[in-house]
Amino acid sequence: MKKTPKQLERYIKGISCHRRIEILDFLSKNDGATLDEIANTLDVNLKTIHEHAKRLYQAGLINKRYVGRGVAHSLSPYGKKIHDFISKFE
Questions:
Q1: How far is CA 7 from CA 54, 56, 64, 70, in A?
Q2: What is the reported pLDDT for 2?
Q3: What is the pLDDT of residue 90?
Q4: Which element (helix H / strand E) includes 73?
Q5: How many domains does the chain have?
Q6: What digits encode the pLDDT tens for the residues 13-63?
Q7: Of the candidates 70, 23, 71, 28, the residue with the CA atom closest to the CA atom of residue 43
Q8: According to the model, what pLDDT value does residue 40 have?
Q9: Which stretches of the chain are DSSP H helices?
Q10: Which of 6, 37, 49, 62 could disulfide-link 56, Cβ–Cβ 3.0 to 4.6 Å?
Q11: Would you state the pLDDT for residue 89?
């Protein structure tokens, strides 16, 4: 099913920051990572990572799965497509 321009805008805005692109790239290699793992690896403040992950989730680019008291993050199907698209620029 073809996406509307409004739907495409949501995905594009979701990656409109270099930190969010870094998070997508990290999750492509580390499925199920927690925010602590992402923050430590990228050497970024946890609150900053939390805000960017929240925006990626709202854009439909990452999934959250509750595991006990923690939350595992992974790329959604559209997150994988966006990551593949971005990878072509490298």
A1: 18, 14, 20, 30
A2: 86
A3: 75
A4: strand 70-75
A5: 1
A6: 889 999 999 999 999 999 999 999 999 999 999 999 999 999 999 999 999
A7: 23
A8: 97
A9: 5-14, 18-29, 35-42, 46-58, 77-87
A10: 62
A11: 86
Tokens of 23: 């998070």
Domain of residue 74 covers: 5-87
Neighbours of 27 (CB within 10 A): 24
Exposed, middle or buried by CB within 10 Å (0-12, 13-18, 19+), for 30?
Answer: middle
Count other C-beta atoms under 10 Å from residue 44's C-beta: 15
Cα distance between residue 34 and residue 49, in whole Å: 10
CATH number of the structural domain spanning residue 23: 1.10.10.10
